[in-house]
Design brief:
Protein name: threonine synthase
Distance between the termini: 70 Å
Subcellular location: Plastid, Chloroplast
Shape: globular
Structural class: alpha/beta
Catalytic activity: O-phospho-L-homoserine + H2O = L-threonine + phosphate
Cofactor: pyridoxal 5'-phosphate
Main location: plastid
Length: 534
């Protein structure tokens, strides 16, 4: 089923339903249109309401408004055609060699290879390579900021690289992604001597974390499986907070039951209330995340509950779009460094995969160096890296303010090592005091970040101090969750109520008597301290 995008200029549409491929001025003239889906119904993009940079002098027609009684799904459905699908994806064993013949349809319910290893989603790269990098760049750029279903999503605007065969009717999306790439001007200048530091605010999202990027993909595929009458009653996950929030929200939107295993008394109230509010069936279990993960894997092996943790490689397909988005936001220029907090370690691989696909398909000519940042209280990857990859040992994760990465036995350890080795990557760690100080310093320059971003900023500070990252290096720190989910940690820090921590950047409120003189005295001292020094 081909889909019709209302993204290209009508003056380009005289040759085909996909004008960028067939317009006489386009380098891909006379090639068949690939943007199609093979499902029972059909769809195609409508080119009539789009603009294209390849013909800036063409007249711009008015966009056809939707019919009065239709929504954006109806509109997308009305514009579909019956072109044959040429793109596909399947599960294969992770890092399998070219001689491996084991593979599975994405419509199968499978989480591990026959040998018990991880799976990966493999796209038909030869089909994708029929279209050059300029084509893909223009297509992806043309969808930004639109409300055309489902391409208004930062994830589904790259649908051909995510789930190319899913029917748009099955997609469950909150138009996630398209998150802010924040120029950290003051923080970079004041604390690091850098002028090209950026923070990718993935936490400015539907449920407040980057997990939305992967969950829209997973829940959409579950929605498809249920329509295909596969044995899926609900979706379950073990969580340190953010995964459960994303799962419960997307399942609620689709009307699919969600089941959440949470470690008792180990996540913030703000994180706990999200799955409760979205109607999930929440089990608070007296164990840590690794214990919850063990239980959910055992349960999903016995009951028709679809496993939503990052053991499931579908989520990484959505998360990789954040890497593509970073390149888009830099006008397809590659940053020097990308720093990602790491817990269960799927996200560092997802970023690698997104960057690598862009390189292989000609959108960019290189990939950035990756840094994975871990909390020192839960640092198995860091210890493995420091041993020069000689021996991996799971650890007992100790309590950390960066609770979402408080994981001692990460599922995606092999994925993370692969990503780091193939990007000339580095692993760093942050103590509790370091990460909380970094969070406070960032907040003091206008941000409001989570402790996990504090871990990533600490890694940056260390690498900057050692000279590994240069003053002029374009560097992106990935912020994985919104600071509003972690207000209690900020309250404790600024109240100086954290045992054995100096909280040197704390900014507690000043207690003042209710009279004019006292207030003036305090303000005069404050303003005097802030006056420019000559």
């Amino acid at each position: 089923m081909a889909y019709s995008c209302s993204l290209f200029h009508s003056s380009l549409a005289s040759k085909s339903n996909f004008p960028l491929l067939h317009h006489r001025n386009h380098p891909k003239f006379n090639r068949p249109a690939p943007i199609v889906i093979s499902c029972s119904s059909s769809s195609t993009f409508d080119p009539s309401s789009t603009t294209s940079s390849s013909n800036n002098n063409a007249p711009s027609p008015q966009k056809n408004r939707r019919l009065a009684d239709e929504n954006i799904r109806d509109e997308a459905r009305r514009h579909r055609s019956t072109a044959k699908n040429t793109l596909s994806a399947k599960y294969v064993p992770f890092n399998a060699g070219p001689d491996c013949t084991e593979s599975y349809s994405l419509d199968e319910i499978v989480y591990r290879s026959r040998s018990g290893g991880l799976l990966d989603v493999q796209h038909d790269m030869e089909a994708l390579k029929k279209f050059d990098g300029a084509y893909w760049r223009e297509l992806f750029d043309s969808r930004v900021g639109k409300t055309t279903w489902p391409y208004g999503s930062g994830v589904w605007s790259k649908k051909e690289w995510v789930l190319p065969e899913i029917d748009p009717d099955d997609i469950v999306s909150a138009f996630e992604g398209n998150s802010n790439l924040f120029w950290a001007e003051r923080f970079g200048k004041q604390f690091l001597g850098m002028n090209d530091l950026w923070v990718k605010h993935c936490g400015i999202s539907h449920t407040g974390s980057f997990k939305d990027l992967g969950m829209t993909v997973l829940v959409s595929q579950v929605n498809r499986l249920r329509k295909l009458k596969r044995p899926v009653v609900g979706v379950g996950c073990a969580s340190t907070g953010d995964t459960s929030a994303a799962l419960s929200a997307y399942c609620a939107a689709a009307g699919i039951p969600s089941i959440v295993f949470l470690p008792a008394n180990k996540i913030s109230i703000a994180q706990l209330v999200q799955p409760i509010a979205n109607g999930a069936f929440v089990l608070s279990i007296d164990t840590d995340f690794d214990g919850c993960m063990k239980l959910i894997r055992e349960v999903t092996a016995e009951l028709p509950i679809y496993l939503a943790n990052s053991l499931n490689s579908l989520r990484l397909e959505g998360q990789k779009t954040a890497a593509i988005e970073i390149l888009q936001q830099f006008d397809w220029e590659v940053p020097d460094w990308v720093i990602v907090p790491g817990g269960n370690l799927g996200n560092i691989y997802a970023f690698y995969k997104g960057f690598k696909m862009c390189q292989e398909l000609g959108l960019v000519d290189r990939i950035p160096r990756l840094v994975c940042a871990q909390a020192a209280n839960a640092n198995p990857l860091y210890l493995y890296y420091k041993s020069e990859w000689n021996e991996f040992k799971a650890v007992k994760a100790n309590t950390t303010f960066a609770s979402a990465i408080q994981i001692g036995d990460p599922v995606s350890i092999d994925r993370a090592v692969y990503a780091l080795k193939n990007s000339n990557g580095i692993v760093e760690e942050a103590t509790e005091e370091e990460l909380m100080d970094a969070m406070a310093q960032a907040d003091s320059t206008g941000m409001f970040i989570c402790p996990h971003t504090g871990v990533a900023l600490t890694a940056l500070m260390k690498l900057r101090k050692s000279g590994v990252i240069g003053a002029g290096d374009r560097t992106v720190v990935v912020s994985t969750a919104h600071g509003l989910k972690f207000t209690q940690s900020k309250v404790d820090y600024h109240s100086k109520e954290i045992p054995d921590m100096a909280c040197q950047f704390a900014n507690p409120p000043m207690q003042v008597k209710a009279d004019f003189g006292s207030v003036m005295d305090v303000l005069m001292k404050y303003l005097g301290d802030k006056a420019p020094k000559h």
